[in-house]
Amino acid sequence: MAMGRDSSSTIVALAMLLLVCFYRADAETHAVGGSQGWGFSVSYDSWTNGKAFTASDTLVFNYQQGLHNVVPVSATGYRSCRASSNSKAGTTGDDKFTLRKGPNYFICSIPGHCTAGMKILVVGN
Fold this sequence. Notes:
This protein has helices at 5-25, 44-48, 75-80; strands spanning 29-31, 58-62, 71-73, 94-98, 102-107, 119-124.
């Protein structure tokens, strides 16, 4: 039995919807730094070791509002501990970011904080 164009389009649309639902169902939420949160007391290189991150996972940065912030940056910004002038800092103390595929870089842009270790690289697979 031959399928009409409308039937084929419907099947493709349903398959795409199922893929999107499956893709999002696997997304996890990660509290950066675990129970210690985003601050000076965590080695973020150590914190990421052994963890699997996927594009579409959510990173949650918990910290006392006003003491820190979190800014998504480029690789250059990560290495230099400098956010670009058009970067938007999260400042709520409960900031959430969805990981993209590949490297995702974040820093605290308060002077001295990034150079003291408040920066993290997470690779979304």
